[in-house]
Design a protein that fits this description.
Elements (H helix, E strand, L loop, with lengths): L6 H22 L5 E9 L6 E2 L2 E2 L3 E18 L2 E24 L2 E28 L2 E7 L2 E20 L2 E11 L1
Antiparallel strand pairs: 1-4, 2-3, 4-5, 5-6, 6-7, 6-8, 8-9
C-alpha cells in the first residue's frame, strides 16, 4: 500500500507543524514573552508578464495585513518576533485601446481585479530603540507563507466598427 497525501492533507500537515514549532518556542522560553495584535494596509502588487515583459497596466490596490504576534526577548534590546499573519494582496487593471485602419475601428476595454490571501509565519529579529517614554522597533526577517485563497474577476469588451455596423463581444471572467 502506498501512502497518498492529498493537497488538503499536505496543507494541514504544514499548518500543524508550524503551529507546533511556535508552541515549542513559546513554551521553552523562560524570558518574559509578550503577545500583540497588529493590523495595517498592504500596497503589495501582483506582477504579470506578457511575452517576457512586465505588464505596465497593472496597478496596486490596497490590501491588508492582520497578525497575532509573539515577542520573545533575545538579549539586550533584541526581540525575536513570530506569530501568525493573514496578508491580502490586491491589484487592478483598467485599459482602453482604440485602433483603426482599412475601413474599420476596434475599441477594446479591459477591467480586472484580483486578490490573493496568504497565511504567513514570520521569523523577525527586532532591535528596540528607546524613544522617550516608549520605544521604536527596527528589524526584519524571513517568513513562511501559504496561499489559501484568491479570486480574479475581469470584463473584456471589444467593439469592432466597419462602416456604420458595430459588433460587440463581451467576455466576463470570475474564478476562485
Amino acid at each position: 500500500n502506498q501512502l497518498k497525501i492529498t493537497p488538503k492533507k499536505y496543507r494541514n500537515m504544514k499548518e500543524k507543524l508550524l503551529l507546533s514549532v511556535l508552541l515549542i518556542i513559546t513554551a521553552t522560553t523562560k524570558a518574559q514573552v509578550t503577545f500583540g495584535i497588529n493590523a495595517g494596509a498592504n500596497m503589495g502588487n501582483l506582477v504579470t508578464k506578457l511575452d517576457g515583459k512586465k505588464d505596465e497596466g497593472i496597478k496596486p490596490a490596497t490590501g491588508y495585513i492582520i497578525s497575532a504576534d509573539v515577542n520573545i526577548p533575545a538579549g539586550n534590546n533584541l526581540i525575536f518576533q513570530t506569530g501568525l499573519q493573514y496578508e491580502s494582496i490586491h491589484n487592478k487593471v483598467n485599459t482602453n485601446n482604440t485602433s483603426s485602419g482599412g475601413g474599420f475601428t476596434v475599441k477594446r476595454t479591459f477591467d480586472a481585479k484580483a486578490h490573493i490571501g496568504f497565511i504567513n509565519i514570520p521569523a523577525k529579529l527586532l532591535y528596540k530603540l528607546p524613544a522617550g517614554s516608549g520605544s521604536i522597533l527596527i528589524g526584519g526577517g524571513p517568513f513562511i507563507g501559504i496561499g489559501i485563497n484568491g479570486r480574479s474577476k475581469s470584463t473584456d469588451i471589444t467593439e469592432t466598427t466597419v462602416g456604420t455596423t458595430t459588433t460587440r463581444s463581451v467576455y466576463d471572467y470570475n474564478e476562485k
